[in-house]
């Protein structure tokens, strides 16, 4: 007798001495070697057991031993493949990796919640941040504990498909989802229309003498017409509900699926038995309304994030590189730092850089919200995604790919959309509790009516399940946050943190930095006074050399004054926050900054009240004083007046000298100001305001004020190319139009008002409808309409944010 045992995975003979097995499809399967065992375990762990169920023959080659799906997932672990979509995870160790994935199959907020909860439970996952609007997830993981292929497989286990994000894939996926949604909606609409025609005949038949045989025939026709709706059209609801149950999470699709299946099974039983009420019309109408509402909600959500999506499409793929006077069309991915590119009129700029030849005007409206064209000439910075209007210019590339301002804005925007605001998290928790409570109520309602009127149990339970689905509650906050965020980014106000909008609505005290915030941030050197033996030009060269590594606006003034002349090499360079810089040049230690930095007595200088004085010293010797003057930003006084009208206090906390700060404060109508503050002292003052009950908005330039911006309840950083890349503010003012600060506060307050309205409506609707449904006073078809209309009202109310606040 032949007792030969074949390997379940590859089909080869299993030697008697080998005792290896893997549980596949519920049964232990023999394996011939550790390799087959490892692959089989991987297939099972990754939810790909259907490979064994559907294969028609055993593998013929070693390559066939691994399913194609598993091969594709494993490819994402290859370092060369990962280069195209991974980016460096900030503030993390060398083993941390971060990527943005797009999730296919998302139908509602419950899907996001399910994926998020499941991924956060995995060992090695450091952070998970979903963006409901775009169906993208920013995920960070430890490569030592989990691979990207395993993460993708875990998502696949839930019934969803994930892959690294790209704009092209996003567009294709969105088009496929839209096409699929329209198909399902069309089929559901046809089924509902036909089923309702049959229902009219059945309802009217009793009064018109409809014969039993004809009535029974209509019931059977209704059942057949309902099958496409409850199978093909309602499949997304079942899939989401099943995924939730498998992972012990109750989402809003659970009561929806229960209602659909309960209604269909009960009606089918009544049809077979030949007596009782049938609800095929209600079921198909419910599916049609749900699909229609979700289609409209998806359209509204996509419209809300279209500004963010447009940013990803701004940068061109081809640039004209200039080499030794020759022009060559070159893919942008092949450009290098220092390359020269020619930008013709009408073309989109391919990389960040400095204009080295030519003068033109550019449109930066989609980057900064600035509607007017900006003049750019030699020495000016120019950004990828901007459109050249007038004349050809040659640009020296100084930033590419993920380091451009465009990429930085996209990352910050994606982070803001992915970070869930506290109010939205609360809504998700309430919706989850509500779903659980609803199922408990259904049980009690069923038991009550089973004792009182058994013939009504089916209809009333179906009505309760349908009428009280928490769709509107789950949509109340996300829809409003998406609409407000897209409205603000269109005006050059970029929310970079999830809590920013909610926090802005509560602000009652605004604190301004001065240089680069209330002023233009481009101080001009108007006078130089020397005190030692060095000439004015030599002192200026030393000062510019010390400042060449700094990004402070004052530093740029010294660099500009040197007009690209060669500078000294500085050793042991040190930046002392709030005071200045020090460094060693040719064995001499120099200090450049305010009087506090030097520890020396400084002589009195006659200078304009709006000017600042920067001192240069070596050892105990004062070498020079540089007098710089800056201009106030336009509309600052209007901003202060508008904030005062809203009962919002304003203050200036600055590191500059008291006379300068006093002059600016007086000219701008600000009565509360403090001067000569270090960043630590500013932070102490902000905490003092917070202890007095103030909700503080700090507005700074984002360079030396990182601790202060982080310490405020909410912060706004004035935007520029270098600051964007490492913005510490919760909000970045891309356009640098200060009146947008007041508009952002107005928008946040209106958004909170809309969210409160949505919550009140969603809760009031359920509290009102549930008792009527439980008492049998509402028909199932009325419940279907009410639930769908409730969700639609929430979405349309949120969209008012985009249209109501138009100046």
Description:
There is one protein chain. The protein has 807 residues and is an alpha+beta fold. 49% of the residues lie in helices and 19% in strands. A seven-stranded mixed β-sheet has the order 18-30-29-28-19-26-27, sandwiched between helices. Strands 10-9-11-17-12-15 form a six-stranded antiparallel β-sheet, with no helix packed on it. It has a six-stranded antiparallel β-sheet with strand order 20-25-24-23-22-21. Strand 9 and strand 10 (326-331) form a beta hairpin. It is elongated, with a radius of gyration of 33 Å.
Brief summary of the model shown:
The protein is built from 29 helices and 30 strands. It has 807 residues and is an alpha+beta fold.
- Radius of gyration, in angstroms, nearest whole number: 33 Å
- Put simply, the count of helices is 29
For the termini, the CA-CA separation is 90 Å
Name the average pLDDT.
78
Enumerate the spans where pLDDT stays under 50 for 5 or more consecutive residues.
Answer: 61-66
Sheet with most strands: strand arrangement? 18-30-29-28-19-26-27
Number of strands: 30
Secondary-structure content class: alpha+beta
Strand portion: 15-25%
Helix content: 40-55%
- Broad shape: elongated
Main beta sheet strand tally, sense and closure: 7 strands, mixed
């Amino acid at each position: 007798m032949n007792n030969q045992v074949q390997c379940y995975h590859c089909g080869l003979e299993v030697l008697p001495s080998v005792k290896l097995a893997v549980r596949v499809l519920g049964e232990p399967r023999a394996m011939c070697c550790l390799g087959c065992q490892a692959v089989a375990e991987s297939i099972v762990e990754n939810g790909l057991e259907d490979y064994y169920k559907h294969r028609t023959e055993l593998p013929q080659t070693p390559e066939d031993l691994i399913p194609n799906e598993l091969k594709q997932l494993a490819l994402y672990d290859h370092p060369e493949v990962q280069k195209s979509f991974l980016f460096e995870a900030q503030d993390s160790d060398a083993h941390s990796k971060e990527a943005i994935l797009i999730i296919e199959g998302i139908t509602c907020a419950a899907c996001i919640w399910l994926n998020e909860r499941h991924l956060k439970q995995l060992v090695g996952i450091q952070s998970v941040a979903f963006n409901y609007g775009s169906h993208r997830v920013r995920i960070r993981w430890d490569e030592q504990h989990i691979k990207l292929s395993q993460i993708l497989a875990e998502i696949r286990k839930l019934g969803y498909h994930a892959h690294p994000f790209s704009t092209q894939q996003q567009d294709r996926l969105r088009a496929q989802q839209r096409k699929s949604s329209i198909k399902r909606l069309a089929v559901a609409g046809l089924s509902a229309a036909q089923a309702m025609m049959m229902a009219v005949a059945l309802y009217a038949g009793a009064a018109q003498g409809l014969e039993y045989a004809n009535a029974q025939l209509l019931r059977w026709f209704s059942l057949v017409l309902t099958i496409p709706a409850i199978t093909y059209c309602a499949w997304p609801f079942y899939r989401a509900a099943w995924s939730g149950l498998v992972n012990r999470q109750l989402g809003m699709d659970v009561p929806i699926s229960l209602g659909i299946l309960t209604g269909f099974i009960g009606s089918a039983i009544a049809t077979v038995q030949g007596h009782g009420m049938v609800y095929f019309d209600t079921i198909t109408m419910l599916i049609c309304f749900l699909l229609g509402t979700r289609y409209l909600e998806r359209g509204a959500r996509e419209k809300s994030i279209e500004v963010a999506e447009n940013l990803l499409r701004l940068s061109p793929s081809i640039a004209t590189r200039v080499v030794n006077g020759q022009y060559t069309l070159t893919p942008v991915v092949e450009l290098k730092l220092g390359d020269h590119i020619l930008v013709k009129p009408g073309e989109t700029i391919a990389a960040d850089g400095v204009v080295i030849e030519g003068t033109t005007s550019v449109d930066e409206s989609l980057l900064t919200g600035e509607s007017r064209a900006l003049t750019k000439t030699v020495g000016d910075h120019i950004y990828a995604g901007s459109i050249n209007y007038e004349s050809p210019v040659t640009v020296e590339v100084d930033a590419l790919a993920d380091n451009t301002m465009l990429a930085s804005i996209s990352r910050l925007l994606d982070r803001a959309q992915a970070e869930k605001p506290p109010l939205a998290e609360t809504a998700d928790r309430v919706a989850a509790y509500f779903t659980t409570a609803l199922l408990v109520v259904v049980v009690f309602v069923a038991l009550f009516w089973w004792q009182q009127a058994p013939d009504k149990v089916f209809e009333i339970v179906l009505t309760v399940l349908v009428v009280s689905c928490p769709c509107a509650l789950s949509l109340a906050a996300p829809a409003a946050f998406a609409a407000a965020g897209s409205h603000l980014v269109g005006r050059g106000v970029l929310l970079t943190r999830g809590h920013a909008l909610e926090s802005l609505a509560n602000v009652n005290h605004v604190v301004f930095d001065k240089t680069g915030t209330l002023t233009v941030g481009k101080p001009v050197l108007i006078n130089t006074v020397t005190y030692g033996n060095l000439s004015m030009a030599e002192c200026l060269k030393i000062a510019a050399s010390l400042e060449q590594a700094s990004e402070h606006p004052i530093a740029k003034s010294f660099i500009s004054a040197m007009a690209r002349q060669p500078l000294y090499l500085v050793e042991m360079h040190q930046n002392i926050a709030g005071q200045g810089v020090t460094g060693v040049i040719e064995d001499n230690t120099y200090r450049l900054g305010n009087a506090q930095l030097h520890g020396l007595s400084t002589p009195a200088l006659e200078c304009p009240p709006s000017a600042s004085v920067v001192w240069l010293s070596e050892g105990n010797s004062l070498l020079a004083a540089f007098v710089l003057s800056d201009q106030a930003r336009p509309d600052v006084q209007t901003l202060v007046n508008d904030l005062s009208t809203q009962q919002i206090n304003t203050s200036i906390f600055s590191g500059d000298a008291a006379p300068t700060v006093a002059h600016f404060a007086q000219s701008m109508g600000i009565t509360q100001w403090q001067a000569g503050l270090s960043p630590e002292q500013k932070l102490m003052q902000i905490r003092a305001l917070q202890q007095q009950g103030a909700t503080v908005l700090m507005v700074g330039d984002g360079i030396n004020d990182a601790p202060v911006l982080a310490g405020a309840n909410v912060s706004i950083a004035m935007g520029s190319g270098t600051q964007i890349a490492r913005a510490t503010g919760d909000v970045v003012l891309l356009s640098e139009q200060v009146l947008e600060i007041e508009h952002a506060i107005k928008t946040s307050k209106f958004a909170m008002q809309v969210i409160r309205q949505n919550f009140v409506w969603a809760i009031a609707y359920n509290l009102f409808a549930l008792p009527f449904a439980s008492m049998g006073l509402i028909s199932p078809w009325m419940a279907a309409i009410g639930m769908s209309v409730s969700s639609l009202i929430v979405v349309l109310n949120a969209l008012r944010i985009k249209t109501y606040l138009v100046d």
